[in-house]
Amino acid sequence: MTTSFRNTEKRFSAVVRSGFAAILLLAMLTGCSTASRPEAPHVETSVAPVALSENVLLGIPVDETGKKDESIIIELEAFTLEYNNVTHNPDWVSWHLEKADLGTGRDADFESYTELPDGWYSVKPGDYTNSGFDRGHMCPNADRNADAGKQAETFYMINMVPQAPNNNQIVWKSLEDDLRKIVENNGYEAYIIAGPYGEGGRGSKGESYRIELKNGEGYITVPESTWKIVLLLKDGTNDLSRIDEDTRVIAINVPNVQGVQGSSKNKKRWYDYVTTVDEIERLTGLDFFTSLPDSIEDELEGRIDRSTKTKSIL
What we know:
Layout: H1 5-15, H2 19-29, E1 62-63, E2 71-75, E3 80-84, E4 89-97, E5 134-137, H3 148-153, E6 160-163, H4 165-185, E7 188-197, E8 201-203, E9 206-208, E10 210-212, E11 219-221, E12 225-234, H5 239-242, E13 248-255, E14 274-275, H6 277-284, E15 286-287, H7 294-301, H8 307-310
Antiparallel strand pairs: 1-15, 2-3, 3-4, 4-7, 5-6, 7-12, 8-9, 10-11, 12-13, 13-14
């Protein structure tokens, strides 16, 4: 894939948050296989053209806020994410979904991710116990259940944020389900980015801003909302070259509160929370679609998807 210096520069800014992140980026830039292990990444001495994995083909989201939170890029087979050691949540998770990814069953358990840098806290599945919030997948396990190894990776706690049960199990799930249907039955593939925003949600036990960790290890931030960006393409090859101003992009931002699903007389689903990519960028300080030409990026990011009128993924 050929990328401009502008996009290379953006990706560089996206991951230089710690010394380890800089090493990871250099490994990515030199074309070596990066496996999210901080002990000894392989680094070449010369810089080759950037080659991003399929999970982040649209570009690594760039933090334009200037914040100095400790965060690193972790690239697994199932997804690529940026993990934040202050919030103990992913800042974003990015993956590609196609029909071959879809299978059946859920044969995996939640587990800690043990390959973070020395001194970083690895969230445990039990840290969410009695919090009133679900361990909410950003990349859902059902998007990867054709491959047991990839599905197991989706259960790492680095892929979770505290989600209100009504958000996770109803509204958020409704878009996950609809995306898998259109991919499986209608000949589409999807590029997806998801993450948390803000601080302070309302779970089954009331309002909370943090899940306190034991032994002075800090806290897990409870987000104010969870957002998702989806770019849909008909099945094909050379995906970047097929994206234009008419490509469909769906963006949602769902309040992380009980009751977000509405009432029995006024049920709400994902299309009731449609927004623009520009708005998610404004909220999060992230810049998306950095692999696309500026003119296409601007058009796609400023548009409200038609779902608000059609109430359908189609």
